[in-house]
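Ticket opened by: R.M.
Priority: normal
Category: complex prediction / small molecule

The reporter submitted a protein together with adenosine-5'-diphosphate and asked that the result be attached to this ticket for the collaborator who will pick it up next week. Submitted input follows.
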Amino acid sequence: MTALRRVPPSLDAVLRDVAFDHLWRSSSVLALVLDAQGVVIDANARAEALFDGPVVGRRGVDLVGVAGAAARSTLAHLGTRGGAVETVRLTFRDLGGATLVLGEADAGELARVERDLAAMHADLQNLTREVVRKNRALARLGELKSRFVGMAAHDLRKPTGVILGYVDLVLDGAGAALSDDQRRLLGAIRSSCSFMARVIDDFLDLAVIEAGQLTLHLAPSDPGSVVRAGARRAEEHARRADVTVSLDLEPGTARRLDASKIEQVAMNLVGNAIEHSPPGGRVVVASRLEGAAFTLTVSDEGPGIDPDDLARLFRPFERGAHGGVARVGSFGLGLSISKMIIDAHGGSLDAASGAHGGTVFVVRLPGAGERIA
Ligand SMILES: Nc1ncnc2c1ncn2[C@@H]1O[C@H](COP(=O)(O)OP(=O)(O)O)[C@@H](O)[C@H]1O
Ligand SMILES: [Mg+2]
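Result attached by the on-call engineer:
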């Protein structure tokens, strides 16, 4: 034991007592005393703080992870109260029948951990910079894609319109001079062209919306009449598919809306309902006033939509399990465009399917004067 050379022998014992007492309570060195079986019989304040509570009676090996006999001095990683891990150098002193375990923060290990942390931090900063750079590049590519789609659609729209116009002219004006075969061929050109015109319009709409340039031309209109006009535009489609479309439209109060856009939504929803109906099926288009809010429902007797698919189908270019075979030219844009139009009106567009198939699409528009001032 270290001798206290400058202190008179009479004070030596008192001083050791006081100093020990202080160090035992306030030292940053962890101290445990283990009996011959390795069970803790005493511990200082630091040990109790580190292990979150009394440790007397617990096994030393459970606390520090190593048994005294195994190593006289070793590094240990101790789980602390806050869940962090503290690295200490443990020293075991044999007291003859008992063992004193001392644990001190290991300066070398701490420095190494700090260096590792600094390196990880630098890596993280580099990664963050890289992610920011890639995000910018992606956003730029997204803009380019929208611009390209917009420009291509814009340039295709005019010639498509010209072809449609001339085919109509020939079919209507020079109709009598046509053979049945010619009429059939021109009819096929006409229907392909009008499909192309619809797709081009969807691409243009999407490009405009993605560029954040969707502007509503709001004017007071009766939503019921607007929906009726949209459903009419799907009449020919319904006839060809042998589907009956029933309208049950309550006269509504006029409210500010973009009539041509709401008409487009109605046409999209009714068109989808017809496409997914079996021959002989029925589509019901109903509107109600609930308070000041306007609600439109479009129901069909089709196969329904898997609930797991529902949210996805409102995103551009997403098609469901029933979107394929019969509808080769489907691009999965109608619902996403419809949703963006309804959202811009401050309303909502949702869908639900019954357990036995059939789908109901529900559009809600806020009351006159609400939100879309
Ligand atoms: N009434 C409906 N019944 C069943 N599935 C539907 C219905 N309406 C839409 N869907 C599904 O949602 C998908 C996306 O519809 P939409 O955005 O209009 O694109 P598209 O009609 O071009 O496929 C469709 O491919 C179809 O799977
Ligand atoms: Mg569609």
